[in-house]
Design goal:
single chain, 464 residues, alpha+beta, Outer membrane efflux proteins (OEP), four-stranded antiparallel sheet
Length: 464
């Protein structure tokens, strides 16, 4: 009978699902990005986009970061927690069955009114084995909405993990580019120190020969000292970048040998006029939407509490004074129950919970909108930065060539006594600034390419 009643009421579970069904909100965004890309249509970028830079050490560092970083381990643990919460929510669709055994020995009073019947033992022993179940009929869809919210939270945690992977890979690549840029800057400053050391020797020789004033020596010494300070600053910054890479990769003792920045190639840039629908590739946007789905489902959970809850209870077992008789036919016991609980007065507590759930959905909607708008801006900014950095590189290259020629000519003129030493100093400073500016622009261009890939959720699809 218990089984028949349960099977009869089970189809009623979830036949009414209160609360709003989720619909993706409309977000008014332009159909295309405003900034044009630097190149025409290019192939798709694979999920392992960092391999486009063709640097085995960078590939190794990104792989180590994605495996050992503490943020990644935290995000993976959050996914495992969300998976367990989904299993817990889905388990509520099924009845909970518990079994137990109890043994008691008691004595009744002989002085009670009416007294016990003659021959009835005052001391009694009772053994009982029972299996009991409690089942809430999900008539209003509370459990279904809770399961829907748990599933959405699981997806949000998975997308959050993907966001951590994407952000960590980008930060590792950009830190690596900064380190390589500092390698080149140190090499440039070492060459500058040699050049200024030669200029100081020349000024001293001309002073000894009576061709130049003592002021030239002091000025040459000052510019040499300035280059030495710049070199030490670059070396310090490189050490800091190396330590940051060690933290990102989970290898505090990491040592990166010096390398060359200009040797790194640039990845392809997407075609002009990318549609904003590519933003759906971004895991942070997907996570924000799933959080909105979960908040929307929680409204149904709160509203279901306004309606009666229907509960089925049942037990089946055996009871006997002797343990050996528990399995006999006459020892069987069972019970079946049906309960309905309707809130009558709670001073508005349940309505307040519905309002809270609705407010959390509005918060999730605002966060979703902000995430999309931020992503759209990041893509546009990255495109502009890539175009400008690429255009600057040609001008900076011309500036560098001009500075080299000016330094060579001014040094030659000073050696022959046609110009003052101030022209040499000015040419040296211009040369040093031009070399460093070219290297830093190359680093920025590489970093901007990473920004674009991150902004597009890890790349883009091939044009059709």
């Amino acid at each position: 009978m218990n089984r028949l009643l349960f099977l009869a009421l089970l189809p009623l579970a979830g036949c009414i699902t209160v609360g709003p069904d989720y619909e993706r909100p409309e977000m008014p965004l332009p159909a295309q990005y405003p900034a044009p890309a630097a190149e025409k249509a290019t192939p798709a970028v694979s999920p392992q986009w960092w391999t486009l830079y063709r640097d085995p050490l960078l590939d190794e560092l990104v792989a180590a970061a994605r495996m050992n970083n503490a943020d990644v381990r935290f995000a993976v643990a959050r996914v495992l927690e969300a998976e367990a919460q989904v299993r817990e929510a889905r388990a509520a669709f099924f009845p909970e069955v518990m079994g137990g055994y109890s043994a008691t020995r008691s004595r009744v009073s002989a002085a009670i009114v009416p007294p016990p019947q003659p021959g009835v033992a005052l001391t009694r022993t009772q053994n009982q084995v029972i299996a009991a179940t409690v089942y809430e009929v999900d008539f209003w869809g509370r459990i279904a909405r809770a399961s829907e919210a748990a599933q959405a939270n699981l997806l949000a945690s998975e997308y959050a993990k993907d966001t951590v992977f994407l952000t960590l890979s980008g930060l590792t690549a950009q830190t690596y580019f900064a380190l390589r840029s500092l390698d080149v800057q140190v090499a440039v400053l070492e060459a500058t120190i040699r050049t200024r050391g030669d200029a100081l020797s020349l000024a001293r020789a001309r002073l000894a020969a009576g061709f130049s004033p003592e002021l030239d020596v002091y000025q040459a010494q000052g510019t040499l000292s300035d280059a030495l300070v710049q070199k030490r600053d670059a070396e310090r910054n490189r050490a800091l970048a190396e330590r940051l890479l060690g933290q990102l990769t989970g290898r505090p003792d990491l040592h990166v040998p010096p390398g060359d920045l200009p040797a790194l190639p640039f990845p392809p840039t997407p075609a002009p006029g990318l549609p904003s629908s590519l933003l759906e590739r971004r895991p942070d946007i997907r996570a924000a939407e799933e959080l909105m789905v979960a908040a929307n489902a929680q409204i149904g959970v709160a509203r279901a509490a306004l309606f009666p809850s229907i509960t089925l209870t049942g037990s089946l077992g055996s009871q006997s004074a002797e343990f050996s008789n528990l399995l006999t036919s006459g020892a069987g016991i069972w019970s079946l129950g049906f309960g309905l609980l309707q809130p009558i007065f709670d001073a508005g507590r349940r309505e307040a919970r519905v309002d809270q759930a609705s407010a959390r959905r509005e918060q999730a909607l605002a966060n979703y909108q902000r995430t999309i708008e931020t992503a759209f801006r990041e893509v546009s900014d990255a495109l502009v930065n890539i175009v400008q950095a690429g255009s600057n590189e040609a001008d900076l290259q011309e500036r560098l060539e001009a500075a080299r020629n000016a330094l060579e000519l001014s040094t030659l003129r000073y050696e022959r006594g046609y110009s003052p030493f101030l022209e040499v100093l000015d040419a040296q400073r211009t040369m040093n600034e031009a070399e460093l500016a070219f290297v830093r622009n190359r680093q920025a261009r590489l970093a901007f390419s990473v920004d674009l890939i991150k902004a597009l959720g890890g790349g883009w699809a091939a044009p059709e």
